[in-house]
């Protein structure tokens, strides 16, 4: 199973969310995208649910010499979340990433300001919060995001992703519901499950957010 692009993945996810909501619906829903790749996916869900869309900026902490290999992640002013198994394989400790955490935390704040264009962060308490990305590999970024959101007492916390690896399944307490459309047996990278997986620019993220009702 491959998705044509992120838009199609979002439409398929939206259909699955609507089926899951039959008879109950979502209380005061809010769709949050992990930028950049999660934004076009989440936009389709926000349209289908007639819900506001915003972003939750989480920055990956990469392994030395392998910035794309995430060993941790940071969001807001929360403590960083690390993949302890990855640290053990690297024979490293969290304290060796202090400078990397500080750099990525500064980038979180910069991107939040850029993408929100002066809008305040949305209210999360007592809402159905649907967290969306374009795929899940190790899951450390999503895990940091879910732990952050849980601290804000949403009524229900849903993780919605088109494709995920077996390693990417979050722990039971971190989300009330996980919707993953495709969990392949052999998983190398998220991009292999899309025909078109072009990188998005910051401008495209901002334009997409502007095109969807973002008041939350």
UniProtKB/TrEMBL annotation:
Transferase found in the keyword field: yes
Keywords: Glycosyltransferase, Transferase
One GO molecular-function entry: glycosyltransferase activity
Coiled-coil segments on the chain, per record: none
Keyword Ligase: no
Protein name: Phosphoribosyltransferase
Organism: Streptomyces ureilyticus
One Pfam family in the UniProt entry: Pribosyltran
Location of the Phosphoribosyltransferase domain: 11-181
Highest taxon in the source lineage: Bacteria
InterPro entries, sorted: PRTase-like, PRTase_dom
SUPFAM superfamilies assigned: PRTase-like
């Amino acid at each position: 199973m491959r998705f044509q692009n992120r838009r199609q993945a979002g439409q398929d996810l939206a259909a699955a969310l609507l089926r899951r909501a039959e008879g109950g619906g979502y209380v005061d829903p809010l769709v949050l995208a992990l930028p950049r790749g999660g934004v076009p996916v989440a936009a389709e869900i926000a349209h289908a649910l007639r819900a506001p869309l915003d972003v939750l900026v989480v920055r990956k902490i990469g392994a030395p010499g392998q910035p794309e290999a995430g060993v941790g992640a940071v969001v807001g002013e929360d403590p960083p979340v690390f993949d302890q198994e990855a640290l053990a394989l690297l024979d490293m400790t969290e304290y060796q990433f202090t400078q990397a955490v500080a750099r990525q935390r500064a980038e979180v704040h910069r991107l939040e300001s850029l993408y929100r264009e002066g809008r305040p962060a949305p209210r999360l308490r007592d809402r159905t919060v649907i967290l969306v990305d374009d795929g899940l590999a190790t899951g450390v970024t999503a895990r940091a995001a879910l732990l952050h959101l849980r601290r804000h007492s949403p009524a229900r916390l849903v993780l919605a992703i088109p494709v995920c690896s077996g390693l990417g399944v979050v722990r039971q307490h971190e989300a009330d519901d996980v919707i993953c459309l495709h969990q392949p047996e052999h998983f190398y990278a998220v991009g292999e499950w899309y025909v078109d997986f072009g990188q998005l620019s910051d401008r495209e993220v901002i334009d997409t957010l502007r095109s969807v009702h973002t008041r939350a």
